[in-house]
Amino acid sequence: xxxxxxxxxxxxxxxxxxxxxxxxxxxxxxxxxxxxxxxxxxxxxxxxxxxxxxxxxxxxxxxxxxxxxxxxxxxxxxxxxxxxxxxxxxxxxxxxxxxxxxxxxxxxxxxxxxxxxxxxxxxxxxxxxxxxxxxxxxxxxxxxxxxxxxxxxxxxxxxxxxxxxxxxxxxxxxxxxxxxxxxxxxxxxxxxxxxxxxxxxxxxxxxxxxxxxxxxxxxxxxxxxxxxxxxxxxxxxxxxx
Length: 241
Hints:
2 domains, globular, 241 residues
């Protein structure tokens, strides 16, 4: 038990311990992917993990309640995350683009994007877009009645997420639109999703303080509905075979 006590003491020693642990985990995961898959696919996955990890860590840092000294240290940690993970992701993406895949890698990547990745993006954009639309209406109506539960900026953020998710869903749901551009299109969808997630969280935080129970209940129902839809589609696809 003393090891757990030492770890707890070290973890509570600084409010940034959790962010640094996540930073280290993302670095290890990125390095593992690039070493495990030495092809361009590994570099692209390393870029996705590195960029996604940086966004998650920065959102975590923004959620911390800090004094003035803590805010100064937060700026240092944020710069560390951006320079290391952001630089690492940009480097991996640049190498993958400059080298270019061979014919076998290109065929494999296009097949994976068409058969798997676009379906994931389709579910993700539909889920985020539907949630953002419901929360947008939920926050707009009280504002029109002069009883706002969120600021105008947060309401606008939800609208931006809804429109952006609609664009992403329209692209992902029509694979023919990406014919001969699958890899570039998948990269653009990743960038769009990484842009929408922090904006969605920002709008969500505006409703969190005033309607926490409603937000939790709605997302729980939405997750269950999405899981049911995915399960039914898999059952139907298996029966069709």
